[in-house]
Amino acid sequence: MLLAIDMGNTQTSLGLFDGERLVSAWRMPTDRSFTTDELHVRLHGYFRMYGMTLDTVDAMAFAGVVPELNHAWRRVAGRIAASTVVVGPDTASVTRVRAANPAEVGADRIANATAAAKYHGAPSIVVDFGTATNIDVIDAEGYYIGGAIAPGLRISMDALVARAARLSSVPLDAPAHAIGANTVEAVQSGAVLGTAAMAEGLVARIRRELGAPSALVIATGGLAPVIAGSTDVFDVVDGQLTLKGICEIYRRMRERS
Known about the structure:
It is a single chain. With 257 residues, the chain is of the alpha/beta class. The protein has helices spanning 36-49, 67-80, 107-120, 153-163, 183-210, 224-228, 241-256, and strands at 2-7, 11-18, 21-29, 59-64, 83-86, 124-129, 132-138, 144-151, 216-220, 236-237. The chain is globular.
């Protein structure tokens, strides 16, 4: 089986695949202080929780945006997997990126574009609600061509609470109305509905620039269900899109070898 790892700035998503079928998925914090041994022990614990052992892992593939942890994950892979693929320059031959500087494109965005084109079609637009809100644009030929990056919902909320002394932390739930009847609802309206409105506006502009008014729009990321419930701009909510992309890139690399 393949263990796919999407290492984000705040959380790391992991998925165990049997072929293209996702068997199990879970999340853990992205902690830059984790050592190889700590990551190995955590993996062992997750597998035990699901009644499995690390012996079921034949291969590992990961996309990472935290350089400090890349080496630790590589060493973990060396311990438990027969083969390893790291999404990035080494996988450029099996991915489609048409950008001014392909080396600058995040591995998670490449994985999103790969999965979007394979599973949902092209042209398409992926809105990934993570630490940052990333919008990835895939043209009609299935190439990643660029997008947008905005502060993520949690970052915006943390900044608001830190700067506004009278506001405490507010649950990130969608309010029933845009007009908040109290402070909590007002903050939820600005944060959740505001993020949804930002997505709607950027998607509309991107569709016009792309010349594809019906381009499919996909929501992913940890906060996708919250935002997707507040707008009809999304055609698909696929919370495991990035992991699926990592799995597909691994499959293509194996076919080339």
